[in-house]
């Protein structure tokens, strides 16, 4: 069984020196959130993750959820862990105080969410999706619905699900067929939803399903979708769960990974129709869905960081212990001393650090949006919107490579299930698929986030990166990396210009552009980290081992990841015609 | 359950137009091997793979090998399939006629081997390793040992295993501790071996274990290893299997994939010592092992092609059937029409084709070696030696990406085990690990294959590539790809020069150089294919759909894979210092 330790030094370095979290707290008027309180929260989360959640990770893999006559039975131990989780107040960390939440800044709750996802991704997926649902209900639901559901969702007393996909409607929500019929003060929902994460379990006494469906008078396509709250148990007037709704999980999937997270086929309205409540106006489900989805996409990107970190810790521990081969002096050594193993560990380490920095920076943009004046809000909203497909797409793709390296470092032992490396690799494979595939992220980036505003928001980011590069003071070893990064930023800018002039090819090139932007953002923040580390190292009280390592990590990133940007851009510019050149019959 | 169809057109195109197989047959004086006979062999292999082996692939995954008191029990159906396999003469295809083999050229047996590995990798791994053992026994064993064992190995009546790895000796064979003590006309072997593929089963009435062990007077390190034949059952004087030897499988591994292939921990000499027979001279086990290993490495590289082909067929079939999204005219379409899905399919298609071409070209080098005059043999041996780490390393790494795309194309359905995409992804994950990890291939390339001969053999290959590029006539659409390829060849040449001037960094940069050489070789053969396809298209009787597709595939390869060469080389040249810059404690 593998342990998990919160990478405190790196996370706090990013919080303090990359994100400038104290300034965010000031702007949010959360001055009580001093370093002592932050430390206490992170310490306690790290302890809970280490002692309770992480040990259940392999249990979830080996004793995944099952389905019985009375519904889905989660992994043994999960219910107790969930109870401790909510009792510890962890569910309500980011929730609004009005509904019982602790109102912590998004940046900080993101650090804590990384901890949960590293410790036990299957378990923590339940909270991740509940967060998205909370966001949607907070923004779009009526006060009445909020008063019934929101407090219990925030406290974690009830969990929530997102019901989008149907057998004929995966990435294409226009094809949704689930029906909603008006009846008295509610609706009757009927239809089948698939791939519903944590669609059923016995950990809480109710589950709040958010379900996309069509009203009878709905226009065709995505403009005819409405969002409904469909509770597993109808809520009594006193707020307690009452009789069973006509909604249930009918089967669960046998998946490559995340066995601890039940993926359900949900059946609504097999009998009289499931009772549901409209969220927001009719036919505005798509907007509600995007609120949920954007939140979840940031969360899934963060899962990419989290599982890479866990896989890295696992591989590192093996590499330090596994004796293999001899040095020139004849002494036998651990494989961590072999250059190619070291190369792989450094890929894992620096790749994970770069992702973490971007995940926290993207989260901090949420806080900046909250704190911003009305005049500045659109700028922060645009930046956040721009980050979302990069965080989701780039990070989850990079997590594939890093978790695979985690297996590779352990050689034959990595391929044996008992050692645990394979679980991270299998679990990670869902990340570029759910909450919008990598292809969808690419489309979102080039379409909604670049072409729709004529490149304005991406160029604003590129300007900021270019300006910062000009001011960074880095060590001599990093000078050439910084120079390469400056050139690379210009290449990405040219790539964006190319896109603006080749709109017809947008759908073929999205993924390559998204990957190049991701790698550039990673370099930007790793270089910022290196510059801060250099500046801090004049102070004798600082942790110099760490500050040196941070600079090495940035250099390695620049040398091993940054060259990928030019590769993706070259492919983007030359490679779209050949993509569609074959007739389907020629395959 | 997914079907497998032999990609006849592409395989035959490579045979006829990339490898020039008829010339190879001539040089081997195998003129009876005309196109009619070749067709008949491939037809029959394709039929057997389609009807018998492929349907057992998912069975092997779901009902993997088990271990009981009486040994390892293979997947239901495998024994019958194996019997049909040997009765059909498939085991003996490449064997020497002197020992009952059919003496087919290596190039052709490689095409057939691709078919087996695509249809059922776990099942066919048994034959692949038996081939390596046959090679070692043929080259190194005494006539007496050959007369006892070789014919039955060639016929497939007995299978064979390779016993290298021990708990403390994985990639590092110097650490082998298994002992061999001389006794009368044989030896007594004792020790434990792990990760022994097909170490036990009930498909045949004997198993020939090839075991590395140390004699009492052996020098330390790899120069003190000897190779022994240790049969599961001692062979009677009449050649039949007699009493049980003191050798058995004590456990099997629970693995990420290839469940149908039992991976055994073997115990030799728990009682009186297992009876073994020395192969070759004492202390020359390393050379024998390399004969086996080089053969197996080419085979594993071919598995990379094979499983990518299978994953591609599976994903393509899904992409053609799965309706999702609408065209501008409002009609609903299969996902194969979406540009990003098409991009992924083209990556799978062109990547697999490039690997196939290199696998067959490398195999043809074996045939050229056989046919060569004594004077020319060293050249062909050097080329074959050079190809081996590229075939093993590059192809198995590329197979990771392509089988992962196979999952990605199928989205959520790809993550569900029943659909089968995940099995290819899981099975493929062993390929960069067994028979020498990717790191080991990188070391082999830069050390034994480049530095040891001062770059002579790699420069001979690069010269050949450069010369051929000058003569190729390609279509207008491919002109810029050819130009890029010419530049890229020069970059690889510069990379080799860089290596020759930076010998101390060799161990850190092997993988990056190996990958860049692999991608270049792929471009070389895809461009050769495109030029041949263009030349052939003047002939009206040719399959023009295919010839056009071949050129599109080459173009796509050049645009989407070739830019990776520069990326790997840039990383190689700049990135070795940062690899080792951290102290172990700083991780």
UniProtKB/TrEMBL annotation, chains A, B:
The keyword Transmembrane helix is annotated on this UniProt entry: no
SUPFAM superfamilies: Acyl-CoA dehydrogenase C-terminal domain-like, Acyl-CoA dehydrogenase NM domain-like
UniProt entry keywords in alphabetical sequence: FAD, Flavoprotein, Oxidoreductase
This enzyme's EC code(s): 1.3.99.41
Domain annotation Acyl-CoA oxidase/dehydrogenase middle: ranges: 162-267
Job of this protein: Involved in the assimilation of dimethylsulphoniopropionate (DMSP), an important compound in the fixation of carbon in marine phytoplankton, by mediating the conversion of 3-(methylthio)propanoyl-CoA (MMPA-CoA) to 3-(methylthio)acryloyl-CoA (MTA-CoA).
Full protein name: 3-methylmercaptopropionyl-CoA dehydrogenase
Natural source organism: Neptunomonas qingdaonensis
């Amino acid at each position: 069984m593998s342990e998990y330790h919160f990478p405190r030094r790196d996370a706090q370095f990013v919080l303090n020196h990359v994100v400038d979290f104290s300034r965010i707290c000031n702007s949010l008027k959360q001055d009580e959130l001093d370093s002592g309180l932050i430390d206490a929260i992170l310490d306690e989360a790290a302890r809970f993750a280490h002692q309770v959640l992480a040990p259940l990770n392999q249990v979830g893999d080996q004793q995944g959820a099952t389905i019985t006559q009375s519904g889905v039975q989660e992994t043994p131990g999960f219910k107790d862990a969930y109870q401790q989780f909510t009792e510890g107040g962890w569910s309500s960390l980011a929730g609004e105080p009005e509904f019982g939440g602790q109102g912590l800044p998004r940046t900080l709750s993101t650090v804590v969410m990384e901890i949960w996802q590293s410790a036990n991704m299957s378990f923590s997926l339940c909270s991740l999706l509940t967060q998205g649902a909370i966001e949607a209900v907070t923004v779009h639901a009526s006060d009445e619905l909020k008063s019934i559901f929101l407090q219990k969702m925030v406290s974690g007393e009830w969990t929530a699900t997102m019901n989008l996909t149907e057998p004929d409607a995966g990435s294409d929500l226009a094809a949704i067929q689930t029906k909603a019929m008006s009846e008295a003060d509610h609706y009757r929902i009927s239809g089948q939803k698939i791939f519903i994460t944590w669609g059923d379990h016995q950990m809480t006494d109710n589950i709040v399903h958010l379900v996309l469906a069509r009203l009878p008078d709905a226009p065709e396509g995505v403009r005819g979708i409405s969002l409904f709250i469909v509770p597993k148990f109808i809520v009594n007037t006193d707020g307690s769960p009452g009789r069973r709704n006509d909604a249930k999980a009918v089967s669960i999937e046998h998946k490559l990974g995340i066995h601890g997270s039940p993926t359900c086929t949900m059946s609504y309205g097999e009998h009289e129709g499931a009772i549901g409540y409209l969220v927001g106006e009719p036919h505005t489900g798509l907007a509600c869905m995007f609120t949920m989805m954007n939140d979840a996409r940031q969360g899934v990107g963060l899962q990419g960081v989290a599982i890479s970190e866990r896989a890295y810790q696992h591989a590192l521990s093996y590499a330090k212990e596994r004796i293999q081969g001899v040095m020139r002096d004849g002494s036998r050594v651990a494989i961590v001393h072999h250059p190619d193993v070291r190369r792989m560990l450094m890929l894992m380490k620096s790749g994970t650090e770069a992702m973490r920095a971007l995940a926290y920076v993207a989260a901090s943009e949420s806080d900046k949006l909250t704190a911003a004046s009305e005049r500045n809000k659109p700028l922060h909203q645009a930046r956040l919107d721009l980050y979302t497909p990069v965080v989701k797409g780039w990070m989850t793709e990079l997590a594939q490579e890093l978790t695979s390296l985690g297996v590779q470092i352990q050689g034959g032992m990595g391929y044996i299930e008992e050692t645990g490396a394979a679980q991270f690799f299998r679990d990670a494979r869902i990340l570029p698929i759910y909450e919008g595939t990598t292809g969808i992220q690419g489309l979102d980036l080039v379409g909604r986030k670049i072409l729709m505003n004529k490149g304005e928001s991406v160029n604003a980011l590129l300007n900021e990166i270019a300006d910062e590069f000009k001011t960074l003071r880095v060590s001599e070893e990093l000078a050439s990396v910084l120079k390469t990064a400056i050139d690379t930023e210009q290449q990405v800018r040219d790539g964006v210009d190319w896109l603006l002039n080749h709109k017809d090819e947008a759908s073929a090139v999205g993924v390559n552009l998204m990957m190049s932007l991701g790698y550039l953002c990673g370099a930007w923040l790793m270089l910022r980290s290196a510059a801060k580390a250099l500046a801090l190292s004049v102070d004798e009280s600082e942790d110099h081992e760490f500050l040196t390592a941070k600079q090495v990590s940035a250099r390695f990133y620049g040398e091993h990841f940054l060259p990928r940007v030019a590769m993706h851009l070259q492919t983007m510019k030359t490679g779209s015609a050949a993509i569609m050149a074959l007739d389907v019959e020629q395959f």
